[in-house]
Amino acid sequence: MVWNRLLAALVAATCFSSVANAGHGLPAPLRDHDFADAGLHSANKIALGKQLFFDKVLSGNLNISCATCHHPFAGTGDGLSLPVGEGARGTGVVRDTGFGSDAVRERVPRNAPAVFNLGAREFTTLFHDGRVQPDPGSPSGIGSPAGSQLPDGLDNALAAQAMFPVTSGTEMAGQPGENPIADAAAAGDLAGPDGVWEQLAGRLRGIDGYVAQFIASFGDVNNAEDIRFAHAANAIAAFEAAAWRSDNSPFDRFLRGERGAMSLAQIRGMRLFYGRAGCGGCHSGVLQTDHTFRAIAIPPVGPGKGDGPSGYDDFGRERVTGNPSDRYRFRVPSLRNVALTAPYGHSGAYDSLEGIVRHHLDPVTSLDTYDVQQAVMPDRADLDAHDSYAINDIAIRFAIAAANELQPVALSERDVRAVIEFLHALTDPTMLDLRRDVPAFVPSGLPVAD
Q: Which among 193, 245, 249, 325 counts the fewest CB atoms within 10 Å?
């Protein structure tokens, strides 16, 4: 054991130059400066955001919270390939699709991404297709599906992101006719006097336990009438940024000079990752993402986004830019705590770390041989019928394959195992037990557990 640690330290001492010689230098370690609001949010604001994140009062039918699809117990995701939103019951992989008239209408079309490190300065573009992104020409400075309806005063892109799940009928708002918030969402009225955000703010103004916290958290809130939904979004973002800052993995400690922080296998995997395997070409930087959009032939699963002749396709980044060259491109995700955040891919196609790694080695072959049965979703006959439509459509599969940007990479079985070992070195042990992030109760009095 001692010899192994000494040998690992010796290998570590030479790995920086070895990786650099392979064409990719190792990134600098994360520092407080890399997190935009490190230490700046008040404890009151973070505590308020925590309660809002778990409170179903932000949903049209009072039956789902942000945490339902981004739960600490599921690596800040939900453990499912595709979320089951408004109308369902349960949390994580035991979530069902609901019953009777309250049952979900469809699965949410894209995988629920993890929330780790989204408070870092470099995260200025969010969602799988990047539809929240910097836009100096907009009043808020942030481009989004809301256009000019997006209010100013949002702290960052993460706060802007928090404005949108509540506007989705499938995710949190509910269906037209079920509640006034759902009706406003269906009409596209987000920021009007009877819009989604104002109705939700009105709910919060009527809860004394929240009013006191908003006043304590925001200098421009002096009474209940001053509360806006943008305040709630800023608080939620503050909680996410503070609770899920993750920068104490073995890889982080290694970058900070603790040469024995990673095992020999992890060091070898790191050299492959940033070298011959080519992973670092897209998953570059200290958070393992270059924030670009790439087409890598991830198999389509679920109902799609209504694109193409069938309506079962998902054109990805093209939906935002309108540029056909962006079709099937999706945002390169950060790999921090990736071992905790299965399933993988924008469609949640792969349920294992090995599965998504092997997909990257030969994406087109992986697409052609994909079996939708490996997706993790609660069964329901009518929903199941939609799940495999796109993958079984030869025209869609051909188009996805033609857009693929990754060339096949030849790695030995030993190499594959080493890369996976390195990916495990990106797990921050402080993120393994997140029970501390779940409140016992919320001011609305609604149940925290589903």
A: 193
At residue 450, the pLDDT reads 73
* Angle between helices 229-243 and 196-205 in degrees, nearest 10: 80
Question: How would DSSP label each residue in 105-157?
Answer: SS--SS-----TTTTBTT---BSTT--BEE-TTSTTSEE-TTGGGS-S---SH
Q: How far is CA 64 from the centre of its chain?
A: 18
| Burial class of residue 146 in the structure, from the number of CB atoms within 10 Å of its CB (0-12 exposed, 13-18 middle, 19+ buried) | buried
Query: Mind listing the domains of the chain with CATH numbers?
Result: 2-31+248-429 (1.10.760.10), 43-77+113-245 (1.10.760.10)
Question: For 169, which DSSP code?
Answer: I
Q: What is the C-alpha separation between 286 and 392, in angstroms, rounded?
A: 38
* Cβ neighbourhood burial of 385 (10 Å; 0-12, 13-18, 19+): exposed
Residue 72 tokens read as 């600490």
316: β partners: 329
pLDDT in tens, 10-38: 445 444 444 443 344 899 999 999 998 76
pTM of the entire predicted model = 0.94
